[in-house]
Specification:
The complex is a heterodimer of chains A (about 110) and B (about 110). Chain A has about 110 residues and is mainly beta. In chain A, about 0% of the residues lie in helices and about 50% in strands. In chain A, the strands form 2 sheets. In chain A, strands 1, 3, 4, 8, 9 and 10 form a 6-stranded mixed beta sheet that branches. Classes of the chains: A mainly beta (about 110), B mainly beta (about 110). At the A-B interface, strand 3, strand 4 and strand 8 of A face strand 4, strand 5, strand 9 and strand 10 of B.
Chain lengths: ~110, ~110
């Protein structure tokens, strides 16, 4: 099958560097946000989430930052590794939306150079 | 861990054939979804189901139908496959524990020739 990574913005980083992937969301009423990682030929994998009452949340090597003022979400990956190469996309959901229906971003392709 | 299993990873079907894509989840979740994913278009919701025998149209239901006879199983049906339905199909399930986090299966690559 054709790669879902085609036609996407690409971020290329050196192994060991930090990566920052950005996402602009569309609905100011959105109150829950998720980052997914999708490796080639696989389904999206949940990485980290954040609610609108927070502006920062940390996981293992990943941090999500939320700026509601400008409707911006970012994913920071510390000490990027070759295994981090994938397409990353954000999702937003707002209370009262279709049950479980998230709005997904198109994604950014992260390429890690050894 | 949430497990969403799509039984067929790769399929090649002929135009006009009836196609079944099966999805099974093991977490007793009420909500299940079918998306298709195409380059440049991202994820688009086809149908979702919030209970057995219940279904709701998503953004692109035309040419598709679904079946939810048991809670753990959600099937996507292409009554008469067409070449423009060549795509990656993703099943997903919704957990209640951490807000509206959707967990995905590994995907089914369908090619219609």
């Amino acid at each position: 099958g054709e790669s879902v990574g085609l036609h996407l913005p690409t971020l290329s980083v050196q192994e060991g560097d930090n990566s920052i992937i950005n996402c602009a969301y569309s609905n100011s009423a959105s109150d829950y946000f998720i980052w997914y990682k999708q490796e080639s030929g696989k389904g999206p994998q949940f990485i980290i989430d954040i609610r609108s009452n927070m502006d920062k949340r940390q996981g293992q090597r990943v941090t999500v930052l939320l700026n509601k003022t400008v409707k911006h979400l970012s994913l920071q990956i510390a000490a990027t590794q070759p295994g981090d190469s994938a397409v990353y996309f954000c999702a937003e959901n707002f209370y009262g939306g279709s049950q479980g229906n998230l709005i997904f971003g198109k994604g950014t392709k992260l390429s890690v150079k050894p | 861990d949430v497990k969403v299993t799509q039984s067929s990873r790769y399929l090649v079907k002929r135009t006009g054939e009836k196609v079944f894509l099966e999805c099974v989840q093991d977490m007793d979740h009420e909500n299940m979804f079918w998306y298709r994913q195409d380059p440049g278009l991202g994820l688009r919701l086809i149908y979702f189901s919030y209970d057995v025998k219940m279904k709701e149209k998503g953004d692109i239901p035309e040419g598709y139908s679904v079946s939810r006879e048991k809670k753990e199983r959600f099937s996507l049906i292409l009554e008469s496959a067409s070449t423009n339905q060549t795509s990656m199909y993703l099943c997903a399930t919704l957990t209640e524990f951490s807000g509206n986090t959707i967990y995905f299966g590994e995907g089914s690559w369908l090619t219609v020739v």
